[in-house]
Amino acid sequence: MATTDYDVIVVGAGPGGSSSADFLARAGARVLLLDRAQFPRSKACGEYTSPDSRAIYERLGALPAVLGAGAQAHNGMMIVAQSGARFTIEYKDQAGQPQPVFATDRANLDYALAHHAAASGADFQPATRLVTLLRDGERVAGVRLRGREGECNVTARWVVGADGVHSTVARLLEVEAPPPLRRLGLAAHYVGLKMGAVGEMHLLGGDYCALNPLAGGIVNVGPVVDLPAAGVVAAAGGIEAYFEAVCARFPGVREQLRGAERVGPVRGVGPMSSASKRQAGPGWLLVGDAAGFYDPFTGEGVHSALRGGELAAAVLAEALAEGWADARVQREYQQRRRREFALKRKATELVQLFVRVPAAMNYIAPRLAKREPVRARLASAMGDLAPPSSILRPAFFWGLLRP
Length: 403
Description:
The protein is of the alpha+beta class. Helix content is about 40%, strand content about 30%.
């Protein structure tokens, strides 16, 4: 593997990394996109994306590739409170038109997005591991990689860390921060469930379990619980036995899984949140989960990564074209991320508050079931189809909480 100079090196070929590389390559930048895994590769994920993801796929020109990867469109998500009360979130745009959710096996989705980036002009190198970052004084100036042909140094004007919750790039930069939530997410695929046109989200004691229909009759079963103490999973008999015990706690999930068959392994990710002290610095940016995320209960994890990659690419494309100084790149990127994600984070924390307090969800669930305008506003905001500020106003709370 020969040393090569690039404009941008993107470490991590999940949705955030691939969208960054794709948008940059389409803008004319010389881009290296790398990942330590061999693709296709599976990943612990709810595999449920908020509906505005479609607009990003269209801007990338990647919608046909995503549809070809088996994207399953369905109508929304039914929330089942611990009391048994339920309501269905159905996504519509601000003109009232239905907006489908895409549910896609991450092995297929990530493969499609990475190869679409390659078709757009990025140099995609899977099975390539980041060893360390190269420095020019205080500035990141490239990476040392280990691939099939050994180790080499590769230089670039910018390095983008898009390598997930446990980001090697963030660790090497010493910008990791304590995770805001300590939750464990598990996921496995099943066949034989009787699902309708919507997914299901079952709540119990502050935990939840999602049933998300994928293509081919497969359903993603994904419980999220507080991160267990050391030894709990082993004491339960291993990850598969622990997963089955957790799912059995949810009455509705237990009923759905009766007679169903698991296909493939149980995968997990924890903690279900991450944070970074900064998202940009001299010669580097962080994207996706590496930059920070917060338990995506409403399916915004993939969307946030895609949108964050788009923002990073826009900043770097302007910087490369106009010769911006590092300080301006850092300022622009962090300001754009703040404008894009700060209010959505507050809205997500609000939803999580109701999830974590069963009495609160038991109170609002029957009201949301009866109050279509309030329910529609919540769906639009959480589906990235309307400003999140629309559910952070007193009028919304009154509509939600009034007797």
